[in-house]
Write a structure and sequence with these properties.
Elements: E1 11-24, E2 29-42, E3 47-51, H1 58-65, E4 73-78, E5 81-82, H2 88-97, E6 98-101, H3 105-108, H4 115-125, H5 130-143, H6 160-172, E7 178-182, H7 190-207, E8 210-215, H8 218-224, E9 227-232, E10 235-241, H9 242-247, H10 252-259, H11 266-270, E11 306-308, E12 312-315
Parallel strand pairs: 3-8, 3-9, 6-7, 7-8
Antiparallel strand pairs: 1-2, 1-4, 4-5, 9-10, 10-12, 11-12
Helix pairs in contact: 4-5, 4-6, 5-6
Length: 319
């Protein structure tokens, strides 16, 4: 018998949209939708990957979920509570239990502060007693894979990978339940990227932290994530369990993303069937991928409805 008292997902996003005014006249306003009608869930201690090319709305969703920018329509629930209906105390708790790792540690760390001051800042903001702060800062820097000798250094004295570990230490110092990792590896050398991915995986397993991992690199998403959401122009093309989406993609855009990953050996290239990519005029009200889809037909001039399969959902007429 199913348990009705099952706890809600950690994060639940329902029909989320964010638009920006791009043109205004006396009688008309024109908007650009950075995110349109997006819905997905994130369970406790899990990693959901948002993947798509630049401009697909990934970072906007990350900021919306943390309430760093305001939504236009839709709902964002944290542990079953709408983050726009929180009391003052609930808001403080939400801020303490959520955090973000930004893309480029060169710009996200204050160059005039020592590492100990950067990591300690969230503790000061949330009024942690001074006697506790030193121990928590030291623990965070060690958990991020550095030793305490780094605490008296400045960001300019660190490598890119070390700076990103400092950014991770700052994100975990409050022991949050949820972290948005906004392309945390894109500014790093390839040799360092896997180290940061492994660190995120370790933090998830040891500290039960859930992550929203934002990336344009479908390879990294495949290594790290439990669940994948594929975005294009602010809309979901396909979402589901990692194995289902990456090993058996159904949407043409997901197939194109996977096909864009370089193959490992020349032998594989001989058997590789390239997916043709086309470019046609945009049509208002059409599937958002219509202008690039190699399989588009007349029916694609209308928005597709979601097709629900066993382990994935696909927004395409031909599934």
């Amino acid at each position: 018998m199913e348990n009705d008292s099952k706890p809600p997902p950690l994060i639940q996003i329902r029909s989320l949209s964010k638009k920006y005014l791009i043109k205004k006249s006396l009688f008309n306003k024109e908007y650009f939708y950075a995110v349109y009608n997006v819905s997905f869930k994130l369970q406790k201690s899990s990693i959901v990957g948002l993947v798509g090319e630049s401009g697909s709305g990934k970072s906007t969703i990350g900021r919306l979920v943390l309430k760093l920018i305001q939504k236009d329509t839709g709902q964002i629930l944290f542990e079953g509570k709408d983050i726009y209906s929180l009391t003052k105390e609930e808001e403080k708790k939400f801020r303490r239990e959520t955090s973000i790792i930004f893309q480029d540690p060169r710009t996200s760390l204050n160059p005039r502060w020592k590492i100990k001051d950067i990591v300690e800042e969230p503790l000061i903001v949330h009024n942690f007693p001074k006697k506790e702060r030193k121990q928590l800062v030291e623990k965070a820097i060690i958990d991020a894979g550095l030793d305490t000798t780094f605490l008296d250094k400045y960001p300019s004295q660190l490598s890119g990978g070390q700076r990103q570990r400092v950014a991770i230490a700052r994100a975990i110092v409050l022991s949050p339940k949820f972290i948005v990792a906004d392309e945390p590896t894109s500014a790093l050398d390839v040799s360092i990227q896997l180290q940061i991915v492994n660190l995120i995986k370790k933090l998830k397993e040891e500290k039960n932290i859930a992550f929203l991992f934002i990336s344009h690199d479908i390879n990294l998403v495949g290594i790290l994530c439990d669940y994948v959401v594929v975005l294009y122009r602010g809309e979901i093309m396909e979402k589901g369990d990692k194995e289902a989406v990456l090993k058996s993609p159904k949407h043409p855009y997901t197939k194109l993303l996977i096909a864009s990953v370089p193959l490992e050996s020349p032998k594989q290239r001989k058997n590789f069937k390239e997916i043709p990519e086309v470019f046609r005029e945009d049509i208002k009200g059409a599937c958002v991928f219509y202008h690039r889809c190699p399989y588009a037909e007349d029916i694609c001039k209308q928005k597709p409805t979601v097709k629900t399969l066993k382990n994935q959902e696909v927004y395409c007429h031909f599934v």
